[in-house]
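To fix ideas, we reproduce below a protein record of this kind.
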Amino acid sequence: MTRSYTGATIMDRPGVAIIAECESVEAAKQALSEFPLAKAGLIDWEVIPLGPFLNWEALFEPGNA
């Protein structure tokens, strides 16, 4: 199983966003449960499934620079 993580700051509430590339929501929850702070019961996770970004062509159309 391949997992990768990327982090970002959430602007409208305290905390951070971690983008985990996993096979499923359950796989993401399992992977996140292995973090030391999660094991210690000090943090919890809100897992939101995301799909791929579509319409890449629009980003590179003339006038969208």
Remarks:
- The mean pLDDT is 82.
- Helices lie at 25-33, 36-39, 56-59.
- Strands lie at 4-9, 16-21.
